[in-house]
Amino acid sequence: MSNFKVELRRRDLSEEELLADLRRVASEVGSKTVTVLEYKERGKFGSTTVLRRFSSWNVALEKAGLKAPNRQNIPDEELMENIVAVWTVLGRQPFGRELDKGAGLSNISLGTYEKRFGSWNNALIAFDEFINSEEKSEALPTETENADQVIESSSQLGVPRHKTKREISDRMRFKILMRDGFSCQSCGKSPTTERGVELHVDHILPWSKGGETVEENLQTKCAKCNLGKGNVFDV
């Protein structure tokens, strides 16, 4: 039996590591491009990490030597996640014009939203419904053999048992950012008042110490304050 080994979440990723992983996923799917959903399924890092680092998905693809997708049937979920990404970078509700290619913020053009929903206002209404709709439970499975093995391994290592998954979904992340006014809860910095501020959503009580992935245990931190905590186990 092989030894159990934890995998730590790195915070010092270089741009080349992210770009290399985009190229790897493109190779796996046999394509010259990678969609956000494909990367979420196969990527080593979070799609939001890529978006925060390069400001838009198309910019990341171009730097990786890949082609920006030009698709007609983009899933609604991907359209909504793109709004999340743009809204997060700006720290406020985006104007329709800010989704134009020239703005460099969006992976999907304003025209795509207008064709799908009839207008940008209708797209925002659909986005509101998406954010406020119930998402799949964050609870861990408890009746599968694999879950039993995870619980047993965690107990042997002295790691607290959890009722929720460690990963923070894009929808929950956005809700926390909105609740906290897109401002760091430690220093108050916000992308609305200072250009280039990168916001994270972090566990208050670290997941490694028993903290759960629930709204009351999550808070907004800027990259500087979040990285300065010094706990490599935090999300």
What does this structure look like?
This protein has 235 residues and is mostly helical. The protein folds into three domains: 14-67; 71-133, no CATH class; 165-235, no CATH class. The protein is built from ten helices and two strands, in the order αααααααααββα. The chain has helices at 15-29, 36-42, 47-54, 57-63, 76-90, 110-117, 120-132, 145-157, 170-179, 223-227; strands at 199-203, 218-222. Strands 1-2 form a two-stranded antiparallel sheet. Helix 6 (110-117) crosses helix 7. It starts with 14 loop residues before the first helix and ends in an 8-residue tail after the last helix. Mean pLDDT is 79; it is low at 140-156 and 230-235.
Keywords:
single chain, 235 residues, mainly alpha, 3 domains, two-stranded antiparallel sheet, 4% strand, disordered C terminus
How are the elements arranged and paired?
Blueprint lengths: L14 H15 L6 H7 L4 H8 L2 H7 L12 H15 L19 H8 L2 H13 L12 H13 L12 H10 L19 E5 L14 E5 H5 L8
Antiparallel strand pairs: 1-2
